[in-house]
Amino acid sequence: MTSREEKYLELKRAHAAGRMDRRSFLRRAGALGIVPLVIPAHMRPAFANAEELVVVNWGGPAEAAYMNAFGEPFTEETGIPVFIDGTGPSVGRIRAMVEANAVVWDVCDSGVAGAINLGPGGYLEPIDYSIVSAERCRPEFVWEHGIGNYLFCNVLTYNTEAFEEAPTTWADMWDVEKFPGGRTMRRNVLGGVMESALQAAGVAKEDVYDTLGTADGRALAFEKLEELKPHTLYWSSASESQQLYRTGEVTIGNIWHTRSRGLRNDSNGQFTWTWNQGQLTAGAWLVPRGNPAGAEAAMRFIAVAQEPENQVLLLEVMGNGPINPEAAALVPEELRADDPGQPENYDLMLADSEAFYSEYYDEVQERYLELIS
Amino acid sequence: MMRSQTAPYWWLVVPALAALGVFYLYPVAQVLWLSVTEPAPGLGNYTTLYESQTVRNVIWRTTWISLVTTVFTVTLGYVVAYALAQVGRRTLVIMLFAVLMTLWLSVLIRAFSWVVLLQTNGLVNQALIAIGLIDRPLPLLRNELGVIIGMVHFMLPLAILPMYANMSGLDRRVMQAADVLGARSWQAFWWVWFPMSRPGIIVATLLVFVFSLGFFVTPAILGGGRVMMLSEYISFQFQETLRWGQATMLASTLLLGVLAVLAVATRFIDMKRLFGARG
Fold it and tell me: Domain ABC transmembrane type-1, which positions (chain B) (predicted)?
């Protein structure tokens, strides 16, 4: 046995006997170059007696990426193993789980719609802001029952080979003469749909939600949407949005920047996007009420996921924008153009208004479906 | 006497009935229950059937597309089934294999294959332009036409198999008799063969129509977001907007609609005999 291992065992015994608190145990073990991956149950604080923490996201590359960026650091800190379930925590599934008293998820990677629709119904644990830091998230995405996880945006994405000059505004998307070809936008109104329509009609970014707050403003947005409808296909899954560009059915449209980035990378730049007038939204961490690992463990996980370094990892792999404002400065030079959180990009965009969607989501979604289908 | 002989066999049915009760009837009852209790008790959800233009549009479109799909599927399927009933053993095996093979392919793969074929620069449009039939690509995709093409393709085996089963059981000698009695071939077909094949047509029609009403994947992919059918609308209300009362009301309406179709059908035909429960 090396002396390093001997010293570590000594630390462990001291910790087990209660002569040393957990924090100094971890620090001194760390100084030896040893990070205890799984801390025995009796050494854990109460919240960490959970056997595992189940984090649900939307699968694909996100499973490994979340494990790497958030899961492993969380296990190192708490000793609780993390399981990533990539089956998609849709709002309906969360509600069904809570109502059936059969919650098997601890932390869900949902969105603005989840926080708005599930929070008031009592399906979620409130975010404990003594553990999770409200300052480590963009203020637009801090809610009572959820908190922003990463930034993503609905951006003007186009085929560079289809036009002589690059489109830069939503008004260009509405200009079918100058920018011919198919259009696309999300089938869910939460996707910068009405916001882009109003900006195409000449409403300034700052006035969009004030305008949407009036019946006339909403009518104007729907009028613009109706105008573009003959040219528009409405995507529901993100992979579908990419396919529409690849097949040439669409030359310009409004899709998630993470997907625009994928399109650009796969096509050597044939497709690209502009941040100008983009619609900022966020993935949101939600904790279903009565989650098996306990609310505290879930909050600790969210706190770990707020570490700026961890968030930058996700930007690198998936293009998800760090939502912790501290992270912007840590983003390596070559990734900054793809980071919605860089001030020069962030300031061009408009963030989803929780106030507007809490009040009008049902109404405008219904009207939007009526318009398109 | 009969009773004592058959009674023990009923016990063999019990596990299947129990499974149906737990995994099918109970959830269906829950759906019905939710539709009259959520968000408030009463028939509030059902008033949307009259009040909401969107809901009426979706129901109308679903019915229309299902009807068109059924007509095309049963007509095309009848031709195939008729051919199957005429050909020799070896050809029959090959043809049946071809029909069944489409059943084994995932519905997703089939829908995406149609995207490849029907898109603006797809094979079908390229071929039509190459032979000079059209100048510019036809819009075959992301509209009702695309949805109907995809659905007919999916439903064909479901129509062919019951009609073939019916035709293969028919007595060919009556056709010879018609021939001997001087009927022309179209007369023999129309007056003799067609009436005998009607039970198969009815089963195929019911099967395809009912199946079409609840279809989800193909319209979602081939419709480009603009051809929203009932099940997709229900799914949206369930998953995204959490209007479960609306979703379950529409699901219940769909179920009642299907039951009504079957009820009407039973007035005209003997269902038990159609499905082989009575010889």
Answer: 59-265
The helix/strand count (H/E) of chain A reads as 16, 9
Question: What is the per-residue pLDDT for B1?
Answer: 45
Whether B228 and chain A come into contact, CB under 8 Å, resolves to yes
Which chain B residues contact residue A251 at CB under 8 A? none
Q: What is the pLDDT of residue B275?
A: 63
Q: Which of A95, A188, A249, A360 to mutate to test the interface with B (most CBs of B within 10 A)?
A: A249
When scoring B37, B242, B248, B250 by the number of chain A Cβ atoms within 10 A, the one with the most, hence best to mutate, is B242
In DSSP terms, A107 is beta-bridged to A55
Residues A315 and A339: beta-carbon distance below 8 Å: yes
Report yes or no: B106 at the A interface, CB cutoff 8 Å. Answer: no
Q: Is B120–A248 a contact, with Cβ atoms under 8 angstroms apart? A: yes
> Is the reported ipTM for this assembly greater than 0.90?
no
B69 vs chain A: nearest CA distance in angstroms? 19
Asked if A92 lies within 8 A of B238 by C-beta distance, the reply is yes
What is the tens place of the pLDDT at every residue in A4-22?
767 777 777 777 666 777 6
pLDDT tier at A126 (50, 70, 90 boundaries)?
very high
- Which pLDDT value is given to residue B10? 84
Q: Are A305 and A147 in contact (CB under 8 A)?
A: no
Q: Which residues contact A52 (CB under 8 A, 6 or more apart)?
A: A80, A81, A82, A83, A293
Task: Spell out the domain ranges in chain B.
Answer: 1-37, 52-274
- Whether a cis peptide bond, with omega within 30° of 0, leads into A322 is no
* CATH number listed for the domain at residues A153-281+348-372: 3.40.190.10
Average pLDDT over residues B199-215: 93
Lowest-pLDDT choice from A299-303, B119-123, B167-171: B119-123
Instruction: Reply yes or no on whether the pLDDT at B9 is more than 60.
Output: yes
- Distance spanning both ends of chain B, measured CA to CA: 22
Cis peptide leading into residue B39 (ω within 30°): yes
**B97-145 pLDDT, tens digit each:** 999 988 888 888 999 999 999 988 889 999 999 999 999 888 898 899 9
- Asked whether the whole model's pTM tops 0.90, one would answer no
Of B58, B120, B244, the CB nearest to A373: B58
Nearest to B239 among A92, A235, A369 (CB): A92
3-state DSSP assignment of residue A284:
strand
Q: Flag whether residue B142 sits within 8 Å of chain A, measured between CB atoms.
A: yes
The answer to whether residue B238 neighbours chain A at the CB level (below 8 Å) is yes
Domain B52-274 in this protein, CATH class = mainly alpha
Domain A3-150+283-330 -> CATH class: alpha beta
Domain boundaries for CATH 3.40.190.10 within chain A: 3-150+283-330, 153-281+348-372
